[in-house]
Amino acid sequence: MDQCILFTACRRAAATLLIALLVVGGVGLVGLAEGPDMTIGLGSFPSLGWTGFDEQGNLVRATGFNLGLGYSARYFYGEGGLRPEQFNPYWGWGTFVLIIPYLEFGWLYTLPMGGQDQYFAIDLGFIYILPRIGLGFYF
Which of 27, 35, 103, 120 has a CA positioned 20 to 30 A from the CA of residue 133? Predict the structure, then answer.
């Protein structure tokens, strides 16, 4: 009987954590130097990963692992990739617990701060139909 109660409590805690990760975004750090750099975030997707650039040096994707124990990929499809002081549309896909798929889409607005490749970002998006808000620092 005690094992059943413990299992139910753990399942509820896991579901609550998953919903919190989906609905509330987090802080992300992304390098914008020449070539791929690391991506680190808390509650944003991916949480630990790498950025990708096109031939012109524009940041066009971030891929890696998320806190939901899965894989994440986000693609910026606006002209010129991730651009400062603009709404940058993106779409993405990934998994939670390695097998539960998700789709996301939204807009990332970046504000320059400090150097040329440093930005504060506001992330407004959806995972399936669940709204998500996030804040990020890109440098």
Answer: 35
